[in-house]
């Protein structure tokens, strides 16, 4: 059953670093043409949680295809919602900033640039905004 709770713990809060590293290495070894992604909802988002935040996506897929995958997983058919996928960047001074995923970018390029330096996963957050009515 999917969880609609507002209690929010990130993947990193729940899974220890060593276990995350092991999972990443397993996925990369077993599926070398896929990018291991952790896909979680934005903290204040009202959408349901995914059953599994771990996603393997073909490295040639684009941001647009990731959005379609997300809509399918969430069973979101509303035409009144626009979905957004973000990744967090940190500058040299330690300031964090959410950056929206570009629809035309390949997942492989995004992962090479923004994957987590500790465990290797690409961490993405999703959210939506009502666009009509």
Automatic annotation (TrEMBL):
Source taxon at top rank: Eukaryota
GO biological process: autophagosome assembly; autophagosome maturation; cellular response to nitrogen starvation; mitophagy
Record keywords, A-Z: Autophagy, Lipoprotein, Membrane
Record family assignment: Belongs to the ATG8 family.
Gene Ontology cellular component annotations, sorted alphabetically: autophagosome membrane
Residues lipid-modified (Phosphatidylserine amidated glycine): 133
Protein name according to UniProt: Autophagy-related protein
Subcellular location: Membrane
UniProt-recorded Gene Ontology molecular function terms: phosphatidylethanolamine binding
A Pfam match: ATG8
């Amino acid at each position: 059953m999917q969880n609609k709770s507002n209690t929010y713990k990130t993947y990193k809060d729940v899974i220890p670093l060593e276990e995350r590293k092991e999972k990443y290495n397993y996925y990369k070894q077993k599926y070398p043409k896929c990018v291991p992604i952790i896909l979680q909802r934005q903290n204040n988002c009202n959408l349901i949680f995914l059953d599994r935040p771990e996603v393997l996506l073909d490295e040639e897929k684009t941001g647009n295809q990731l959005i379609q995958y997300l809509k399918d997983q969430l069973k979101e058919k509303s035409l009144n919602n626009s979905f957004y996928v973000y990744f967090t960047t940190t500058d040299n001074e330690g300031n964090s900033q959410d950056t929206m995923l570009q629809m035309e970018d390949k997942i492989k390029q995004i992962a090479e640039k923004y994957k987590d330096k500790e465990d290797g996963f690409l961490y993405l957050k999703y959210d939506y905004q009502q666009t009509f009515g």
